[in-house]
Amino acid sequence: MKVLFIGGTGNISASVSRLCVERGMDLFLLNRGKRGVSIAGARTIPGDISRPDDIARTLGEEQWDAVVNWIAYVPQEVERDIALFGGKTRQYIFISSASAYQKPPTFPVITESTPLFNPFWEYSRNKIACEERLNRAYREDAFPITIVRPSFTYDTVIPLAIGGWDEYTAVDRMKKGKKVIVHGDGTSLWTITHSEDFAKGFVGLIGNRRAIGHPFTITSDEVLTWDQIYNLVAEAAGVEARIVHVSSDFLIRFDKSFEGTLLGDKAHSAIFDNSKIKAFVPDFKSTIPFSEGVKRTLAWFEADPGRRVIRERTNDLFEKVIKAYERQPGE
């Protein structure tokens, strides 16, 4: 099977790329080569997808069994892909986001039929708009789409709501015995998925003709509270977490971006029903518990000092918010 990944070396996609090669797919990676990640067995096509005329010349009349765009975020980008790959691929897989699901939720368990609605986060609204354009292309022109909605999938990022992801700030604070912030009271439920587990479900969709026209959520079945998540990160770092619970509304006073990432996402419980992906990919099963996966992630960060990015702006935010919150009457 001949497959083209636009991207393919990122936090989620690198694991998928490796599994594709392992399963014998003829994998091509179209990217700029800036990450310095090598996928053994995959062939790289140097190029910048934001320059579609150049890409059209580079790819020529190549035909693909599947094209996956890991880095499309706004409708103009999927519009470009429709033009580039219409009639040239048997399947186009778009990476959307589980944050597109209804916020706040009106039902505790999220399925693919949960409405797409997020008034808080532009990122999510753009993903919804991309899905709408692709669904129209499928209905009107038979453009062969499959939509995948990951949720907080990690490997080479630290899955914390504040001071994590591509920075090491929150873990550094834990190691130094400093306080860290958990939004809300720490008891809301969340789902975190290791990218290697995600890959098992995703690769089963590539070339799967039954998946054309369908959306899929792919997550772990492990559900944790946010306090458990932070405590497991601290445990993996060999320390105890000194947690301060701060409401999302209070955090937004200090940084408006939290309106999207918290009210539009992590402030709400996220429990997913994976029945659909399991029906289409029967061998899909998540096997990496967060307690194990986060140890791998921290080991990856520890292996290279350059990965342990500590941002003073984030540290300043921690200190300002904690000081203001603990100064409140009754705190």
Distance between the termini: 60 Å
Q: Please, how many helices?
A: 12
Domains (count): 2
Proper CATH architecture of the largest domain: 3-Layer(aba) Sandwich
User: Which strands sit side by side, in order, in the main sheet?
Assistant: 3-2-1-4-5-7-12
Rg result: 20 Å
Structural class label: alpha/beta
CATH superfamily of the largest domain: NAD(P)-binding Rossmann-like Domain
Shape: globular
What does this 3D model show about the protein?
The structure is a single chain. α1 crosses α6 (195-203). This protein has helices at 13-22, 52-59, 75-85, 122-141, 169-175, 195-203, 226-236, 248-254, 258-266, 275-280, 290-302, 312-326; strands at residues 2-6, 26-31, 43-46, 66-69, 92-95, 109-110, 145-149, 153-154, 179-183, 189-191, 193-194, 215-217, 223-225, 242-246, 271-272. The chain folds into 2 domains: 2-153 and 194-217, NAD(P)-binding Rossmann-like Domain (Rossmann fold, 3-Layer(aba) Sandwich), CATH 3.40.50; 156-192 and 221-271 and 288-326, Alpha-Beta Complex (UDP-galactose 4-epimerase, domain 1), CATH 3.90.25. With 331 residues, the protein is α/β, with parallel strands linked by helices. Helices cover 38% and strands 17% of the residues. The protein is globular. The model has no long low-confidence stretch (mean pLDDT 97). The termini are far apart.
Features of the shown structure:
331 residues, alpha/beta, Rossmann fold, UDP-galactose 4-epimerase, domain 1, 12 helices, 15 strands
How would the blueprint of this fold be written?
Layout: E1 2-6, H1 13-22, E2 26-31, E3 43-46, H2 52-59, E4 66-69, H3 75-85, E5 92-95, E6 109-110, H4 122-141, E7 145-149, E8 153-154, H5 169-175, E9 179-183, E10 189-191, E11 193-194, H6 195-203, E12 215-217, E13 223-225, H7 226-236, E14 242-246, H8 248-254, H9 258-266, E15 271-272, H10 275-280, H11 290-302, H12 312-326
Parallel strand pairs: 1-2, 1-4, 2-3, 4-5, 5-7, 6-15, 7-12, 8-11, 9-14
Antiparallel strand pairs: 10-13
Helix pairs in contact: 1-6, 3-4, 7-11, 8-9
